[in-house]
Amino acid sequence: MKQHLGRQSGVQKVDVSLIDGKVDVTPQEDGQIDPAQLLKAVYDSGVTVAEMEVTARGKIVKDTSGNLALQVSPNQSFTIAPNDLLKTVEPLADSPAVFTLRGELYHKPAGKKKPEASASLKLLILEVQKKE
């Protein structure tokens, strides 16, 4: 699995903890990582993903559909799933405020169904770690 993930575009480092059952992926300094491709790479390696969490820094913006998103670079953003924590950052959409958020991008549904790589992953905010 470490090799499958390490070959993905934008990945600098992969740490696997078999004891905890966790994998930490560190992006390259200016790299973009496609979470859907990481999810597919993990499944392709023969491992089932229970959940995918991310810590990301960016601005809250409205995307082309009017949904709120965390823009982490000019070319990459994560659509944000509605919840109570979204309400705390929503008033600052399209402002210069920068947030560091910890959130869940994927949670395995019941059963053995493999996720679709083309399915868009929505960021469910679990914690607002920092506001600048």
Explain what you see.
With 132 residues, this protein is α+β, with helices and mostly antiparallel strands. It has two domains: 1-49, no CATH class; 51-132, Beta Barrel (OB fold (Dihydrolipoamide Acetyltransferase, E2P)), CATH 2.40.50. Helix content is 16%, strand content 39%. The protein has helices at residues 2-6, 35-44, 84-89, and strands at residues 11-17, 22-27, 51-62, 68-73, 76-79, 99-107, 124-131. Strands 5-4-3-6-7 form a five-stranded antiparallel sheet. Strands 1-2 form a two-stranded antiparallel sheet. A hairpin with a 4-residue loop joins strand 1 and strand 2. The N and C termini lie far apart (36 Å).
Summarize this entry quickly.
It contains 3 helices and 7 strands, in the order αββαβββαββ.
